[in-house]
Amino acid sequence: MSPFRQPAPVLGSVFVSPPQATRVLSKAIIGAAALLLVLAAAAHAGRYHDYSCRTPSGQTAPVDGWSRSTTGTYTYAENTCSTGGALVAGVGDQTERTANAAMATWAFSAPTGATLAAATLWRAGDSDGGGAVNAVYESWFAGPGDLLSPENAFGICEAGINCPTGIGTTSQPLAAENRLAVPTSNLGAHLYMEASCAGASGFKCPVNVGDAHGYAAVAYLYAADLVLEQTEGPTANNVSGPLTTDQPVNGTSDLIFSATDPGAGIYEAEFNVDGNVVQRTVINENGGHCRNVGQTTDGLPAFLYLQPCLKSLTADVGFDSTKVGNGIHHLIVSVSDAAGNTATVLDRSIIVQNELGVCNGECDGHASLHTADTQLLRRTITRRYANSGLLLTGQLVDHTGAPMKGAMIELRQQASYPGARNVLAATTTTDAKGGWKLRVQRGPSRLITVGYRSRSNNPTFATQLQYRETVAAGVRLSAPRGARPGRPFAFRGKLAGGYIPRGGALVSLEIFFGGEWREIALLRTSHRGAFAYRYTFAAIGPTTYRFRAQLPHTIGYPFASGASRSSYIHLTG
Questions:
Q1: pLDDT tens for residues 449-505?
Q2: For residues 71 and 197, what is the distance between their CA atoms, to the nearest angstrom?
Q3: 46-82 burial, b for 16+ CB within 10 Å, e for fewer?
Q4: What is the CA angle 72-73-74, rounded to 5?
Q5: Which domain holds residue 191?
Q6: For labelling alongside 497, which of 175, 350, 354, 442 has CA 20 to 30 A away?
């Protein structure tokens, strides 16, 4: 029972006091110009992620869909996300409060036609102002309906009852202890976060010293991963362009159509040939809003805005027919919205007829690539960034096993982060014995492919070898060798190898103390990977301290966890 309230019924493990509860097609068509247009929207609901304040990897994100309100004096609803902070709902400790007359609120509203199918929050808070009889400082979350109804409350921090020292940590926004999965029963069109003095009408919360920031009650929302569900999908019409009539089809053939969507907006055109997706094209990135930022584990796209893509547009999308072989194929083109709902735009049979291209070497579509070091194929290559370069060698033979000379061999690599492109890194030509040699430059964790195309414009390799390399981050740290108590000095460092995420990467500055590494500060690098931190020793006796910078693995940064060499600083008297 709460020491600050009269006996009350129990809501889960939270006490409430009357009269007010704690607020807590496809059909194939034969013929050169035959086609079928299906304009109906998808029958099932689609889903997509929206990130607020921070992405799962720590980059700054907007707070689209959130609004604030305050009641009473010294109440605060602030947005510091853009500077690495949080959405803050706080009640100051400057004055006595009448119950239910001082509150700060942040409210999230899903867009029209969408609801929350899942939500994960990273939050912290406290209620250090305490309480009195029938009035108490508290913070909580609620959804989906009335903020004041007890059945809608969850994640409650109530002084003297269930939150004696606060919830979560303010030092590491994305710490595991800050993670809060919104219960299924609290999902809907709305979410709320509030801090207040609550209790029975007429009673008052005391004037007590609050936390270090002067809050008697406060809630911080550092990040939200919101999964939105949209039931109504897109429609397409006014279909035209060469791809609707051309026979045969060759090179890149354009398809023109209009599309509308009532919710998250038009996202991609998908080209399906003979039951396989061979091309996906984002139709309009809408100034970067309609760009999948990834970092999900369920395969769904993720965006930084609730309605990321254009609701209505006219598309002109080219189909690259060289992605499939010559011959008769069944083509279905569909358009999807950001939630993954689809509508069919075009369904027809096509005849693909492209030039075969220049012959590569002996033009053997059944050639084989061999490597001199088969061990590299059987395991993941694990190295530090400084040693991540490789020398790969091997032999190309034809279908009879004879060496193939004068054939071009490609080296391609794909960095290990969501959405990374598979890019051409180098080429070489086989010697008289079919031998090839390729030097892989230093780089990130990646998939490395060595391949041979039998003809220059073949969309796929006739034969290939693939190597997987995990590369520890290259972290540099510099610091003076000596320091004096009370005099500040600077640590400086940098991440090697590029690929820094937009918004920088997180680096932990640590000291070796008491037999273990302990974090001093969590720093964000610049877009070039540089970081710095000012530090001052307290007035203690002469000794030597050991420091390092350590980078934890994050999804958006294609390097494994790595640490700098230790820096030793001698503290003089």
A1: 999 998 887 888 999 999 999 999 999 999 999 888 888 999 999 999 999 988 888
A2: 11
A3: bbbbbbbbbbbbbbbbbbbbbebebebebbbbbbebe
A4: 125
A5: 10-24+53-226
A6: 175
Q: Are residue 221 and residue 239 in the same domain, yes or no?
A: no
Task: In whole angstroms, give the CA distance from residue 509 to residue 486.
Answer: 20
User: Are 464 and 493 in the same domain?
Assistant: no
Judge if 478 and 466 occupy the same domain.
no
Structural domain contains residue 170: yes
- Integer CA distances (angstroms), 123 to 126, 170, 193, in order: 11, 8, 10
Contacts of 99 (CB under 8 A, 6+ apart): 20, 134, 135, 197, 198, 199, 200, 201, 202, 203, 204, 205
Residues 6+ apart with CB under 8 A from 554: 57, 58, 501, 505, 506
432 three-state secondary structure: coil
30 CB burial (10 A radius; 0-12, 13-18, 19+): exposed
SS3 323: helix
CA–CA separation, 63 and 86 (whole Å): 10
At 551 the three-state DSSP class reads: strand
Tens-place pLDDT, residues 82-133 = 999 999 999 999 988 899 999 999 999 999 999 999 999 999 999 999 988 8
Pairwise CA distance, residues 563 & 551, whole Å:
6
Q: What is the pTM of this model?
A: 0.59
- Beta-strand relationship, 435-440 and 204-205: unpaired
